[in-house]
Design a protein that fits this description.
Layout: E1 4-5, E2 7-9, E3 12-14, E4 18-23, E5 26-35, H1 39-57, H2 61-77, H3 79-90, H4 94-115, E6 121-124, E7 130-138, E8 141-145, H5 153-164, E9 168-172, H6 178-190, E10 198-200, H7 205-214, E11 220-224, H8 227-239, E12 243-247, E13 252-256, H9 262-274, E14 284-290, H10 291-307, H11 326-342, E15 345-348, E16 365-370, H12 375-378, E17 385-391, H13 394-402, E18 406-407, E19 409-413, H14 417-426, E20 431-434, E21 450-451, E22 454-455, H15 465-468, E23 469-477
Parallel strand pairs: 1-5, 8-9, 8-11, 9-10, 11-12, 13-14, 13-19, 14-17, 16-17, 19-20
Antiparallel strand pairs: 2-3, 4-5, 6-7, 7-23, 12-22, 15-16, 18-21
Helix pairs in contact: 1-7, 2-4, 2-6, 3-4, 3-6, 4-5, 9-10
Length: about 475
Amino acid sequence: MTTLHKNLIDGEWVGSDGSQNVNPSDVSDIVGLYARATAADTLQAIAAAKAAFPAWSRSGILERHAILRKAADEILARKAELGELLSREEGKTLAEGIGEATRAGQIFDFFAGEVLRLSGELVPSVRPGVGVEITREPVGVVGIITPWNFPIAIPAWKIAPALAYGNTVVVKPADLVPGSTWAIVDILVRAGLPKGVLNLVMGRGSVVGQTLLDSKDVNAISFTGSVATGKRVAAASIEHNRKFQLEMGGKNPVVVLDDADLDVAVSTIAQSAFFSTGQRCTASSRIIVTEGIHDKFVEALAQKTKSLKVGHALDKATEIGPVVDAGQLKQDTDYIAIGKAEGAKLVAGGELLKKDTEGFYLQPTLFTEATNDMRISREEIFGPVASVIRVRDYDEALSVANDTEFGLSAGIITQSLKHATHFKRNAEAGMVMVNLPTAGVDFHVPFGGRKGSSYGPREQGRYAAEFFTVVKTAYTAA
């Protein structure tokens, strides 16, 4: 009999009804049974977080440091186990799953250190005999809503700073992948987190997420997901005058110039576009190539794309795992049909694949002769589908790269210091990569974008303090 993994509310594991968590590599493999919270459950979780806030926000830094450090140590010690769980529920290859679990442990370790580095400023006033202190304080109850594509790293990089800076948390993971977040919460509870400080409510966004948005007792919302849902988060947060942080979509360009090293360009872009099954908001889906290298590059990338091994996520030979579920697979294949209808040339992939186990397998797909006004060049597909756009020169490449409503990540492949330097300064993106994949950033530096990709302070690293704290200015007369 499958064990029911329950919600955590005010330090108690609760819940009686659950839904199955299915492996996209093998739909007969049930990863686990996970409880579904009701609106009433969510309200109880919010109330518990509110009640726990006064004590936790004033807790000693050694207590917070010890809990986060203990959690980090366990995550890293169990990275192979947690990585396998992640790969089973989301479909990343085992190597990617273990890598993501490792990153989650590193994030908790970093913020355990940040607890001990909390600081402020002491500055003189313009008035003689008056001192000014500038300090940071926790926001309050933080609602965290996470997506399915990074089911352990994204919860980690939101939960860890929230707790480190003294906030209490209600976290709602994506309905497709509750297992990894449940495991993180379980680790934190056993690390000694007081009851009510962290609450887990799993279930549908229309129920759990909406209740978080509607509550006046939630002081901040950190959300990663679709643009449409992000707009709803923003509207509801403005209604309650709360802080909100949005990480949404991307349509990330990578420019390949005539002087690029062909091998570097092909390997870098194949990784950016297709690894993690293309299900990354930082994936390269628009490949902008200048005329001199275009034909050679397209031929080489098409061959590389065709050679990528698609298979079960836990098979060590697999390079590309399955799409996360049937709905996402349909979205991918619909966009492939749209690309063909728009006149783009399909040069590799696009086929549904049958494997030894029933899953959601799609051969990575490459279009050429695309233009930047096609839907496949403007709308986020969120799958292993990329398009090549031919341009005359660097100036046109930069113009096309910036011609998008998104602005998360951008890349350039070149041996020209002049063009690399100019691109870093003029690419309209929050993160820029030179001769590196557009996907993949370090855990200790800020993450986020511009335009329609992001709103609010950056995530990760020391910049996380901008969202998870509020600034206080205090004056004292001598």
